[in-house]
Amino acid sequence: MRASRTCAASVVVALVAAAALAPSSPGAVRGSPRVAALQVALRAEHLYGGDVDGQPGPQTGQAVRAFQRRRRLAVDGVAGSATRRALGRRGRPAYAARVITLGARGWDVAELQFLMAWRGFPSGPIDGGFGPRSRAALLRYQAWAGLTQDGAAGPGTLASLRLPPPRSPLSMLTPVRAPVGDGFGPRGDWFHSGVDFEAPAGAPVHAARAGRVASAGWNSGGYGRLIVIAHGGGVTSWYAHLSRIDVVAGQPVAAGALIGRVGATGHATGPHLHFEVRVRNAATDPLTALG
């Protein structure tokens, strides 16, 4: 297949040129899935400890050179065909060279996980292993994208995942007066599906847009005290780790209305507001919606 013959060369190009992928508007920049797959392989070799972000940079280049020295290859910092072969099963097969099904492992699976996360459906660690969590995320994505829901990543699904990440069609207000900490995107080998505002405990949290409270209460998935507001058109905003909730499910709220207070409930290491914007439950970068 053509994808198989050109993939190694594409990684060389990505390492040199992916830095040119500048955002046309505020928000996180999606890196190269090929560079992300390389980073996954290098993490497995205990040579790369940075984020699986698909961004070429000194840390990725140093890890490639360290691997090349370890395997007595030409040390040029470029993941060419010889380096890919030396990576073994983690360096193959190329993306779209096969249908990815449960139990598959390899380079293409890492690309798939990376692309699913950016399309709004993170599946846990980006590690090159297509297990039950990845399959469940893929099923949700296929339903969202109007594809056949078979839990297998065939040509249609793989091509669809290359499309740009979804964005909210609605603009929103900043929900709390605080600087942004962790943004939307890769964090280690996981994916952060929102933005964190570094607000102190008890700081007031406001509705980012008028809507109706879809749910308000404790979330067992790590969000702690969570409010979800529906704004129409399948768009929802999420306010997590709250110390207090001041609204109830079904209640209409105006833009800017007080809805709760910042806390550190759920899986939080300290007080902050974790804020998400979803479109038909696909996570989008909230910064592209905030006016």
Unreliable stretches (pLDDT < 50, length at least 5) are 1-10, 12-25
CATH architecture annotation of the largest domain: Orthogonal Bundle
What is the 3D form?
globular
As a percent range, the share of helical residues equals: 25-40%
Spell out the helices and strands N to C.
HHHHHHHEEEEEEEEEEE
Q: What is the residue-mean pLDDT, rounded to a whole number?
A: 91
Taking the sheet with the most strands, its summary is: 9 strands, antiparallel
Short structural description:
With 291 residues, the chain is an alpha+beta fold. It has two domains: 2-160, PGBD-like superfamily/PGBD (Muramoyl-pentapeptide Carboxypeptidase, domain 1); 185-288, Glucose Permease (Domain IIA), CATH 2.70.70. Helix content is 27%, strand content 20%.
